[in-house]
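Hey, I was hoping to borrow your eyes for a little while. For a while now I've been wondering how a particular protein folds. The fold is given in discrete form, as structure tokens running alongside the sequence. Could you read through the record and tell me how the tokens relate to the sequence? Take your time with it, there's no hurry, and the full record follows here:
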Amino acid sequence: MTVKDAGRFNDVYQFLMTNFHREIPLDEVSAVAKMSPTAFCRYFKTRTQKSFVSFLQEIRISHACKLLRRDDLSVMEVALESGYNNLVNFNKCFRNITSQSPSEYRKLMRAEALAAKG
């Protein structure tokens, strides 16, 4: 990876980390990389071995996991704060990545926290 290439990827990564909570159209993120959407998709896949959409979902679900450890947010609020505006889609993506539902994950985290205290 060249210095220019590393800078480009860093710009894209920083953009995603700042904006993952909202809808990110492919043409917007490809503009950050100064590439066409098609070239960006190829570029991104060769750098990460993941599609742009898969990578973005992993960022969102990782954030959701952090939020689910708190008790002050409903699952729907966690979904919204993680970039999902549809609870069914959030549950499906969450289960695909973690192999459990958001509610199951929260329950497991509570049980582990209690076990650690006890």
